[in-house]
Amino acid sequence: MGYGPQYQIRLGPRFSGMVRTLVLINVLVFLWQILSMWVGGGYEILRIFGLTPALVLGKLFVWQLVTYLFLHADFFHIFFNMFALWMFGSELERYWGSHAFLRYFFVTGVGAGFLSVLVDPYSTIPTIGASGSVYGILLAYALMFPNRYVYLYFLFPVKVKYFVLAIGAFAFLSALASPGSTIAHVAHLGGMLFGWLYLRGWVRIDRLRYAYNQWRMRRLRSRFKVYEQKRRRHDDNDFWIQ
């Protein structure tokens, strides 16, 4: 007796690959935050791993440009970020591949943090959350699938290009109107900005690596010149008295 084809009903994209790994890491870190809050160490986690511009520039806590992406304030904060990461990031990963998607995730997230540091370099308020990367993912999704629909509040269909344009404009106006807001609108804009620059080819990992290597070579050359000058002065003054 034969059977017809098997059909599966799925309410969203497949939850697998790098997206699943990132979601699981964020959830585990969030549980660690909750446990730390119970024992009184929650603030210390935010101080060390949250993005605090004054510490990044003053004490060179540069790892915060990465670690802040995996910290979240509460359940709804992490839920909506991970929901958007799953809904929109899964298809990007399917088209780009896991490594390219992970690179884009960090380029937009670190870029968002970098812009936040530039805008308010003396701030002592930590910024946390993967929203910068999520906004970058939304931008990439809108550029790839501009005429697809998303359901606003699960009820109203809106084309992705208009949806992303609206939230980008909202983030921009909010950053201008309330620079002291606890919501990091600048980071949201930074994620979209660096995502656009990266997709345009203006921000590339190989170029950044090349620029870093060139800077390092210039620094080594300058140190070598200083060493040679000191050595020559020493040789000139080095003589034997018989």
Describe the structure.
It is a single chain. With 242 residues, the protein is mostly helical. The chain folds into 2 domains: 17-201, Rhomboid-like (Rhomboid-like fold); 207-232. 68% of the residues lie in helices and 3% in strands. It is built from 10 helices and 2 strands; from the N terminus they run αααααααββααα. It has helices at residues 17-39, 42-49, 53-58, 64-67, 75-96, 98-119, 131-144, 160-177, 185-199, 205-237, and strands spanning 149-152, 156-159. The chain has a two-stranded antiparallel ribbon. Strand 1 and strand 2 (156-159) form a beta hairpin. The longest helix is centred in the C-terminal third of the chain and has 33 residues, at 205-237. The radius of gyration is 24 Å and the shape is globular. The model is unreliable at 1-10 and 238-242 (pLDDT under 50).
Number of helices: 10
CATH class of the largest domain: Mainly Alpha
User: Largest beta sheet, briefly?
Assistant: 2 strands, antiparallel
Strand fraction equals under 5%
Shape summary: globular
What would you call the structural class? mainly alpha
Q: Architecture of the largest domain, CATH level 2? A: Up-down Bundle
The CATH homologous superfamily of the largest domain: Rhomboid-like
CA distance, first residue to last residue: 111 Å
The name CATH uses for the topology of the largest domain is Rhomboid-like fold
Low-pLDDT parts are: 1-10, 238-242
Average pLDDT reading = 80
SS elements, strand count: 2
- Cα-atom radius of gyration: 24 Å
Kindly give the count of domains: 2
Strand arrangement in the largest pleated sheet: 1-2
- Helix content, binned percent: 55-70%
* Helix-strand pattern: HHHHHHHEEHHH
